[in-house]
Design a protein that fits this description.
- It is a single chain.
- By secondary structure, this protein is of the alpha+beta class.
- It has a single domain, classed as Ribosomal Protein S8, Chain: A, domain 1 (2-Layer Sandwich).
- It is 39% helix and 22% strand.
- It is built from two helices and four strands.
- A hairpin with a 7-residue loop joins strand 3 and strand 4.
Length: 83
């Protein structure tokens, strides 16, 4: 199972952004998803950095690895390995 979160519509609202990221990570844990695709967009890169910091701070032990798409740098994959 793969989940997807597009941040284009909520990029300017910090609270909505955090809530959406927390919700998709909670759903991934609940459903034991293999991957979450997060789309911060290309822009200046600030939103992508924000997302990466958010994941590092709050979910470091939850996911297996983070992969930045080499073909589309406005996309992040969060991979999980469930026991």
């Amino acid at each position: 199972m793969k989940l997807k979160l597009d941040l284009h519509d909520i990029y300017s609202s910090g609270k909505q952004l955090e809530d959406a990221l927390a919700a998709v990570m909670a759903e991934a844990q609940k459903k034991r998803a293999k991957c979450v695709e997060i789309i911060p967009g290309k822009g200046s890169g600030q939103l992508k950095k924000y997302v990466l910091r958010f994941l590092e701070k709050g979910y470091k032990g939850v996911y297996h690895r983070i992969e930045k798409d080499d073909k589309n740098w406005g996309r992040i994959f969060v991979w999980f390995r469930w026991e």
